[in-house]
UniProtKB/TrEMBL annotation:
GO terms for molecular function: L-lactate dehydrogenase (NAD+) activity; L-malate dehydrogenase (NAD+) activity. Catalyzes the reversible oxidation of malate to oxaloacetate. Residues 148-305 form the Lactate/malate dehydrogenase C-terminal domain. NAD(+) binds at G10, S11, G12, M13, I14, G15, D34, N96, I119, T120, N121. Substrate binds at R83, R89, N121, R152. This is Malate dehydrogenase. It is an enzyme of class 1 (oxidoreductase). It holds the Pfam family Ldh_1_N. Its EC number is 1.1.1.37. InterPro entries: L-lactate/malate_DH, Lactate/malate_DH_C, Lactate/malate_DH_N, Lactate_DH/Glyco_Ohase_4_C, Malate_DH_type3, NAD(P)-bd_dom_sf. It comes from Pontixanthobacter aquaemixtae. It catalyses: (S)-malate + NAD(+) = oxaloacetate + NADH + H(+). The active site is at H176 (proton acceptor).
Length: 320
């Protein structure tokens, strides 16, 4: 059987990290695409030379030509610009929307059967626009954010409780922005609800609230520390987990920015929800019971996403 083909659109910090992870895991042959000339070719050459040391078989190539992504099984999109200190994700809207148009057309013309994972910010609006521009079925286009946001929440909880991250199952819903909704009621420490575990460990509720706030601002904290660019190791790892779920038909339930129609009272919106990812792409959206407070928070978050979609429609008449 031929190897799978993984196309990475955008070969910057996340794109390069994705290529390294995908090669190390022998997920398939990898094509790094970017508009910057020479850079994807250079990264591909450098990464190829990791092969003999790390012992992976993967053909890694770099290109500036969309024809080279033909027939890709998975496409992961990071093309665009990241945040600088002081910028919100929404500040990236105009420039990254035009990038999504070019990328969507490149996918439509070269690999319309691919499973597409978008990472470019502002995430929930960009994944919606990418789907519109590419014309792919909604179940084959998804956004990565919830896996990362949940991993941030889990990291901070594991630090607080001084427990293994492997035992923390953290849950974040909603849009990928300051209005995201870390859901305490579905967050457990090896099955023990987090509120109960906090009582056992003598951690006050106010401390959990601080952790929720730090999770919401988790991306900005890294942007500020880096001074130039945004997080890339954990975002890349998160998207790889989603790609593996698709390629391996794992049917994992991963919080992903999926197209929601009907469930959660939503009418055709990409937003972070628990999603079953398997060979059919986004195979199902799981609608969980939420408390009144969580419902209200989710509404604030989805309203913010809807506002961004309206802004996209104002910027590109083909989306209206
Ligand atoms: P960066 O290292 O700048 O890489 C982006 C790459 O995109 C650069 O190499 C550009 O040359 C390239 N590019 C620009 N325009 C085009 C185009 N039209 N076609 C192809 N390539 C193009 O950024 P990064 O890798 O750090 O981040 C990429 C994106 O991911 C940004 O929008 C970030 O805001 C976003 N991001 C999202 C998350 C989420 O959790 C959703 C987390 C971290 C970063």
């Amino acid at each position: 059987m031929a190897r799978k083909k993984i196309a990475l659109i955008g070969s910057g910090m996340i794109g390069g990290t994705l290529a390294h992870l995908a090669a190390k895991k022998e997920m398939g042959d990898i094509v790094l695409f970017d508009i910057a000339e020479g850079m994807p070719q250079g990264k591909a050459l450098d990464l190829s030379q990791c092969g003999p040391i790390e012992g992976f078989d993967a053909k890694i190539t770099g290109t500036n030509d969309y024809a080279d992504i033909a027939g890709a099984d998975v496409v992961i999109v990071t093309a665009g610009v990241p945040r600088k200190p002081g910028m919100s994700r929404d500040d990236l809207l105009g420039i990254n929307l035009s990038v999504m148009k070019a990328v969507g057309e490149g996918i439509k013309n070269n690999c319309p059967d691919a499973f597409v994972i978008c990472i470019t910010n502002p995430l929930d609006a960009m994944v919606w626009a990418l789907r519109e521009f590419s014309g792919l079925p909604h179940n084959k286009v998804v956004g990565m954010a919830g896996v990362l946001d949940s991993a941030r929440f889990a990291t901070f909880l594991a630090w607080e409780f001084d427990c293994s991250v492997k035992d923390v199952n953290a849950f974040v819903l909603g849009g990928h922005g300051d209005t995201m909704v870390p859901v305490k009621s579905y967050t457990t420490i090896n099955g023990i609800p987090v509120d109960d575990y906090a009582k056992i460990k003598g951690v006050p509720e106010s401390r959990l609230d601080e952790i929720v706030a730090r999770t919401r601002a988790g991306g900005g904290e890294i942007v500020k520390l880096l001074g130039n660019g945004s997080a890339y190791y954990a975002p890349a790892t998160s998207a790889i987990a989603m790609a593996e779920a698709y390629l391996g038909d794992q049917k994992r339930i991963l919080p992903s920015a999926s197209y929601v129609e009907g469930k959660y009272g939503l009418d055709g919106l990409y937003v972070g929800v628990p999603t079953v990812i398997g060979a059919g792409g986004c195979e199902d959206v799981i609608e969980i019971e939420l408390s009144d407070e969580e419902k209200a928070n989710l509404k604030v978050s989805t309203d913010a996403v809807e506002e961004l979609l309206e802004a996209c429609k104002g910027l590109d008449s083909s989306l209206a």
